[in-house]
Amino acid sequence: MAHRNLDDLVTSTEHAEPVHPWRALIENHCYLDAFVDKGGMSLLLMDGLILVPVIMFAFFYPRQVLLSVGALLLVAFAIYESCVLWKKRHSAPRA
Questions:
Q1: pTM of the model
Q2: Burial annotation 53-91 (CB, 10 A radius, 16+ → b, else e)
Q3: More confident position, 16 or 88
Q4: Most buried residue among 22, 33, 40, 54 by CB atoms closer than 10 A?
Q5: Total structural domains in the chain?
Q6: Per-residue 3-state assignment (H helix, E strand, C coil) for 37-51
Q7: Are 7 and 16 in contact (CB under 8 A)?
Q8: SS3 content of the chain, % helix, strand, coil (to 5)
Q9: Cα-flanking dihedrals φ and ψ of residue 13, to 5°?
Q10: Does 95 fall in a domain?
Q11: Domain interval for residue 38
């Protein structure tokens, strides 16, 4: 009894090539090749994926959204400033 894989079974019974959606996405780079080359448009759309739910949430919970966004901006600013200070200290020329 020969061992056949599922693709062979589908080809012999259905007379059609099997489709592998995950494999097709990986081989075609998730069909984003032409989309990503357009500069910052993909970043803008990803920001929209985050911003739209926050705006909708802000309609019902404005104080919580304001505090959350403020805390997020404060943390991002602290991380940025710590990176700037670290770079100033570690990029000085050494004698």
A1: 0.47
A2: eeeeeeeeeeeebeeeeeeeeeeeeeeeeeeeeeeeeee
A3: 88
A4: 54
A5: 1
A6: CCCCHHHHHHHHHHH
A7: no
A8: 75, 0, 25
A9: -90, -40
A10: no
A11: 6-90
Classify residue 1: in a domain, yes or no.
Answer: no
Distance between CA atoms of residues 22 and 42, nearest Å: 21
DSSP letter assigned to residue 73: H
d(CA 65, CA 90): 37
Q: At a CB cut-off of 8 Å and minimum separation 6, what does 18 contact?
A: 6, 7, 10, 11
What digits encode the pLDDT tens for the residues 37-69?
556 666 777 778 888 888 999 999 999 999 999
| 35, pLDDT greater than 80 | no
